[in-house]
C-alpha cells in the first residue's frame, strides 16, 4: 500500500515538475533578463552572477538589477505603438472570427451526424499541414500576380493590392485561427437540448427570439473560450504580420524578435515579453472567475 501511495504521489508531482521546468524556469530567466541592462558583451546584458565570489557575488548581482527598462517602455513610442497595434489586430480579428465562426459552428451543430463528422474533419484538416506553409500559400494568393488577381482578371475586375497591408494580416489571422473559434463554439452548441427551443416556441417566441433568448446565452461559455483561444496567441503573433504585413507593421511579436536578434537588446525584449504575459493573464483570470461564479450558481 505504501509503494502504491508513493507512485501516486510521484504521478501527481509530474505535472508540477513539467510546469516548473518548462514554464517557471524560463519565466524566471526572462524576468531576470528584463531587470538587467544592455551591455556590449557576450551575452549582451549585465549584471551576470559570478558564483566564484559566493555570497558577495550574489549581493553584487542583485544590486545591479533594476526596473529601468520597464520605466523606459511607456516613454518609447515604438513599444507603445506596437502594444496598442497588437491589441487592435487581435481584438478586431477576434470579432471577425466570432462573426464567421458562430454561424459556421451553429450550422455544424444542426447538421446530421454523418455531415457533422465530415465538416469537423474539414475544419481540422488544415492542422495536418505546417502553419508556415499555409501562410506562404496565402502569399501566393494575395500577391499582385497571385491567384486572387488572376481570378479577378477573369471577371474583368482588379487588380487589388492586398499583400503587405493590414487587410492581409486580418485575412491571415482569420484563416489561421478560425478552427480555434469554431471548435469550442461547436462543442457548446452541439450539447444544447432542442427541447428548450421547442419550449420557447410554445411560449410564443419566434425562431429569432428563441435564438437570442435561449441559444446564444447558453453558448456564451463557448464564445468566451473561443475568443480567448484566438485573442491570446494573436496578440503575440509573429509569422503572419512578418510575412503578410511587411516591414512597416508593428506588433509585439515582431518587436520582440527585432530586439533580440537585430538590436541585441535582450533586456528590452524580455521586458516587453513580461508585459505581454501579464496583459494576457488578466482576461484569463476574469474568465476563470466568471466560470467559477456560473458553477456556483448551477449548484
From TrEMBL:
GO terms for cellular component: plasma membrane. It is found in: Cell membrane. It is a multi-pass membrane protein. Keywords: Cell membrane, Membrane, Transmembrane, Transmembrane helix, Transport. Its main location: membrane. GO terms for biological process: transmembrane transport. Gene3D superfamilies: MetI-like. It holds the Pfam family BPD_transp_1. CDD domains: TM_PBP2. SUPFAM superfamilies: MetI-like. Belongs to the binding-protein-dependent transport system permease family. CysTW subfamily. This is Putrescine transport system permease protein. It comes from Phenylobacterium haematophilum.
